[in-house]
Write a structure and sequence with these properties.
By secondary structure, the protein is an alpha+beta fold. It has one domain: Winged helix-like DNA-binding domain superfamily/Winged helix DNA-binding domain (Arc Repressor Mutant, subunit A). Helices cover 58% and strands 13% of the residues. It has 5 helices and 3 strands. Strands 1-3-2 form a 3-stranded antiparallel β-sheet. Helix 3 packs across helix 4. It is globular and about 60 Å long. It starts with 15 loop residues before the first helix and ends with a helix. One of its GO terms (molecular function) is DNA-binding transcription factor activity.
Length: 107
């Protein structure tokens, strides 16, 4: 097979699990509130209360969005006493988010 031709090349399709994870990740990045939360967490870890206060959101809204992001393994938490501190759990997605933000700011 030569470069640049598809002769004899067997196209490999994405498996269902990969497709689902990719589409859910784009869904996560398609929501302004989740983008704001991820961007804040990219700066430093924060508790639910910190996030709610800094972004002027209800604590219940933040908790709901963090649960969504945690299920996708985009954020993780550590416990200190009774407080949970959240931080990014996937540098690949955070890099993509930063690239998209850079793209948006340079137009």
């Amino acid at each position: 097979m030569t470069k640049g031709t598809n002769e004899g090349f067997q196209f490999e399709q994405l498996d269902e699990e990969t497709l689902f994870i990719v589409s859910q990740t784009f869904k996560a990045l398609g929501d302004p509130t989740r983008i704001r939360i991820l961007y804040l967490l990219s700066q430093n870890e924060h508790s639910v209360n910190d996030i709610a206060e800094k972004l002027s959101l209800l604590q219940s809204t933040v908790s709901h969005q963090l649960r969504f992001l945690k299920n996708l393994r985009l954020v993780k938490y550590r416990r200190e006493g009774t407080t949970l501190y959240y931080s990014p759990d996937d540098n690949h997605v955070m890099d993509v988010l930063q690239q998209i933000i850079n793209h948006a700011q340079h137009h």
